[in-house]
Design the sequence.
């Protein structure tokens, strides 16, 4: 293959060859993306209803975790998840009726491991995208079941790209090259679902759970259309 050592093929062409054949329609948005416009006002309306409940309270929270992420969409090459640490914090609004509102900020690294061929030579590529995300979640927290108070949360999250990179390596080889991935969009929107539980230990409220997010906007400025998909575990403390 010409230029494998230096990866001299222009970057967008390299990625298209690894991911799949060229597709059209980058500027088109899915119906799910349009529906996000209506989801945020609905969540804000629910929040206004929650705030009318007496004896509700705001609390702060911090958490750390690990997340596995991959890509979905028009991808013909083999993909596998990558696993990275995540962290963040935010506020929790608790209502005596059980309703919960949690705005927050998260530091996430997403991407995927890709395997395919570039000009007939098998290669492995790792895509990594670093985001700062701002989820707006609403949900319900049940009464204690034993020592645990389970809760479920759902809502949109908007992510802003901090940096993105792609690394290439021929399968079975040791030579690897990494460079900035300029084809990644500056912003991404996802729908997040959280299944978690809270418990009190030594007077402190601890929380842990599973957090998943499904991208609803194309993360790339070139074809094919690709969407983020993430699932992870997290643990934290609520003050």
Sequence:
């Amino acid at each position: 293959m010409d230029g494998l050592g230096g990866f001299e093929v222009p970057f967008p062409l390299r990625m298209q060859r690894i991911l799949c054949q060229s597709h059209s329609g980058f500027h088109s948005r899915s119906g799910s993306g349009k529906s996000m416009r209506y989801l945020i006002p609905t969540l804000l309306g629910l929040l206004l209803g929650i705030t009318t409940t007496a004896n509700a309270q705001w609390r702060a929270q911090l958490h750390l975790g690990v997340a596995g992420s991959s890509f979905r969409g028009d991808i013909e090459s083999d993909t596998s998840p990558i696993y990275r640490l995540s962290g963040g914090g935010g506020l929790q609004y608790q209502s005596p009726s059980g309703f919960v509102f949690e705005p927050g900020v998260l530091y996430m690294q997403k991407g995927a491991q890709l395997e395919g061929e570039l000009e007939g030579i098998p290669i492995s590529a790792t895509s990594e995208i670093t985001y700062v995300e701002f989820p707006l979640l609403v949900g319900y927290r049940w009464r204690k079941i034993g020592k645990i108070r389970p809760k479920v949360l759902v809502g949109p999250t908007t992510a802003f790209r901090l940096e993105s990179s792609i690394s290439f390596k021929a399968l079975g080889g040791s030579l690897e090259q990494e460079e900035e991935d300029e084809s990644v969009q500056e912003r991404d929107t996802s729908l997040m679902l959280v299944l978690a539980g809270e418990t009190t230990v030594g007077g402190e409220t601890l929380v842990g759970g599973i957090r998943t997010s499904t991208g609803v906007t194309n993360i790339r400025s070139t074809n094919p259309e690709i969407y983020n998909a993430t699932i992870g575990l997290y643990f934290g403390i609520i003050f």
Notes: Confidence is low (pLDDT under 50) at residues 1-13, 20-35, 50-54.
